[in-house]
Design brief:
The structure holds two protein chains of two kinds.
Chain A: E1 4-7, E2 10-13, E3 19-25, E4 31-37, E5 43-50, E6 56-57, E7 68-72, E8 75-80, E9 89-96, E10 103-105, E11 109-113
Parallel strand pairs in A: 2-11
Antiparallel strand pairs in A: 1-3, 3-8, 4-5, 4-9, 5-6, 7-8, 9-10, 9-11
Chain B: E1 3-5, E2 10-14, E3 19-21, E4 24-26, E5 31-38, E6 44-50, E7 56-58, E8 64-68, E9 73-78, E10 87-95, E11 104-105, E12 109-114
Parallel strand pairs in B: 2-12
Antiparallel strand pairs in B: 1-4, 3-9, 5-6, 5-10, 7-8, 8-9, 10-11, 10-12
Classes of the chains: A mainly beta, B mainly beta.
């Protein structure tokens, strides 16, 4: 299994500002995933972050809005840029989940944009 | 394409009664299937998975799930519900031939166990 530390756990931000979420894993992993969970909804994959290359974004998500860093095999950040109230969500990082392996999740960041 | 359906937004059950949370899936090949639970203000916690072999899989906290290939289902069950089981439950799937692609999640089912 993997232990994932994600911070901040929650934040309230002003619209137009940016927030960077950090994700630290207790072991080296090739891929890290960032998800958004809007209120009352399922998880939506934002992007896949590989160390040493640019993140791969899913349809509807762009690098200018959600820049991702992956400086090494145990750490990643997701920035939510120029925030609006529609960005209010829980953001989750995840590792694992290749083949038959289950995914492991951080505890999530609850973001409220006012 | 892979997909997961959880047909119930909400399941209510009395404490001590058996519970079932439904999940059906669609993959082009054979599936790997997973159940996760999310407690308030927490991330997702892994409960159990089906890879191959016995269709009845046992997992954490007394939960089990039954894989039914003909019905493409993977329902989560527990013989006797506890109030502390109240949470949001997610079913997820990956086609065994899809390599390192992320899991595909259902929309979630909120379980409420009433004392």
């Amino acid at each position: 299994s993997a232990v994932i530390s994600q911070k901040p756990s929650r934040d309230i931000c002003q619209r137009g500002t940016s927030l960077t979420i950090q994700c630290q894993v207790d072991s080296q992993v090739t891929m890290m995933f960032w998800y958004r969970q809007q209120p009352g909804q399922s998880l939506t994959l934002i992007a896949t972050a590989n160390q040493g290359s640019e993140a791969t974004y899913e349809s509807g998500f762009v690098i200018d809005k959600f820049p991702i860093s992956r400086p090494n095999l145990t750490f990643s950040t997701l920035t939510v840029s120029n925030m609006s109230p529609e960005d209010s969500s829980i953001y989750l990082c995840s590792v694992g989940a290749s083949g038959a392996t289950e995914a492991f999740f951080g505890q999530g960041t609850r973001l409220t944009v006012v | 394409a892979q997909s997961v359906a959880q047909p119930e937004d909400q399941v209510n059950v009395a404490e001590g009664n058996p519970l079932t949370v439904k999940c059906t899936y669609s993959v082009s090949g054979n599936p790997y299937l997973f159940w996760y639970v999310q407690y308030p203000n927490r991330g997702l916690q892994f409960l159990l998975k089906y890879i191959t072999g016995d269709n009845l899989v046992k997992g954490s906290y007394g939960f089990e799930a039954e894989f039914n290939k003909s019905q493409t289902s993977f329902h989560l069950k527990k013989p006797s519900a506890l109030v502390s089981d109240s949470a949001l439950y997610f079913c997820a799937v990956r086609d065994i031939f899809s390599g390192n692609t992320p899991l595909v999640f259902g929309k979630g089912t909120r379980l409420s166990v009433i004392a």
